[in-house]
Amino acid sequence: MVRVKYTDSDVDLMARMMRAEAEGEGRLGMLMVGNVIVNREKADCLDFKELRSIRDVIFQVQGGNYSFEAVQKGNVFYNRAREVEKKLARETLKHWRQHPSKYALWYFNPYAECPPTWYGQPFTGQYKQHCYYEPIANTCEGAYRY
Ranges for the Cell wall hydrolase SleB domain (predicted)? Predict the structure, then answer.
């Protein structure tokens, strides 16, 4: 069963985003970033209402800025996707989920210790430099759907 519908263009966008946001964290770090992207599309709640595609998620604007720093700054995100990242993107789109990003809708690199909450949402865990946060129970059922 596929977690979300996707196109080759979605795979390319996801691969570029995963690399731009987490290349330094290796395969697992990139998978976790990809998982947050898929979770945001499925969530349909909180800051992520009416996101119906991977493209919607990646190019979402909040508070006048893109949600993902890599889109805002342009860096690696605007390079071509490599086959290794495309494979990881497909894996995430199809089935991959793992703690601490399993239900996470947010992640960030605080360049310090992970705070216990992020915009009021609970900390679920850390992988290398990124801290992951999932919605408070009962505030976003969509985040907990497969």
Answer: 24-133
